[in-house]
Amino acid sequence: MGSDEAAGGAPWLWGYHAVEAALRNPVRKIQRLVATEEAAAELESLLGDASSIEPQIVPRDAIAKLLPPGAVHQGVALLAKPLAPWLLEDVIRHLGTRERAIVVALDQVTDPHNIGAILRSAAAFGAAAVILPDRNAPEVSGTLAKSASGAVEHVPLVRVVNLARALDQLKKAGFWSVGLAGEADATLASHKLGGRVCLVLGSEGDGLRRLTRESCDLMARLPTQGPVASLNVSNAAAIALYELVRAD
């Protein structure tokens, strides 16, 4: 069986959405594209002349041998160099004078499926970036990219040494940081947040660390009412992003 990475640290990406988005990304350096005949025909119909690399036609089981066990590759995979990293300063500079912006900060969220799903929601709701502490955060693997469904090509994933300092840096750039916690007194919608907002989410087990909480301007909760009060962090992120966008 293969792995998420080939020699040299280049990640394998798989699945139609992840592969199509990577092929459409002009800054993504593609090294190899493998596909079944059916998947290659589907990609050609989706991309037209947008792809500059010809797929190597291989049987489905040959693709499976290149990837981690259980990878749902849909008959297509590509080997690509990692995207250049973004710094928080880059994101702030890229926003320029925009009055309205949303970024997402994750505290101790380490599962690549969750991070990928959060990136997907961030792309859907127009978030400018997703921020992760560098320590214990997973690399942008094929697993993460598959869960992100192409969003890794569109939403900058920013790694920071110290999340509390990053929130302070965002505050200086005009952002309000709001931490999501089930025990908070007020709902997210009741804060009526506008302007620049950083949505801060913690792991499902431990939630936000003390220093992260202290770095937030506000704490808020989602208005859950049923017998199960907690949500998967990626689901909570999607609902919270919807609330923030709806507030506009």
Automatic annotation (TrEMBL):
CDD domains per UniProt = SpoU-like_RlmB (cd18103)
Task: Please state every residue range assigned to the domain named RNA 2-O ribose methyltransferase substrate binding.
Answer: 12-86
Q: Name one GO molecular function term.
A: RNA binding
* GO cellular component terms, semicolon-separated: cytosol
Listed InterPro entries: Alpha/beta_knot_MTases, Ribosomal_eL30-like_sf, rRNA_MeTrfase_TrmH, SpoU_MeTrfase, SpoU_subst-bd, tRNA_m1G_MTases_N
Coiled coil, from the record: none
Q: Which GO terms describe its biological process?
A: methylation; RNA processing
Give the keywords, sorted. Answer: Methyltransferase, Transferase
Similarity comment:
Belongs to the class IV-like SAM-binding methyltransferase superfamily. RNA methyltransferase TrmH family.
Instruction: Spell out the protein name for this chain.
Output: RNA 2-O ribose methyltransferase substrate binding domain-containing protein
The species is: Aliidongia dinghuensis
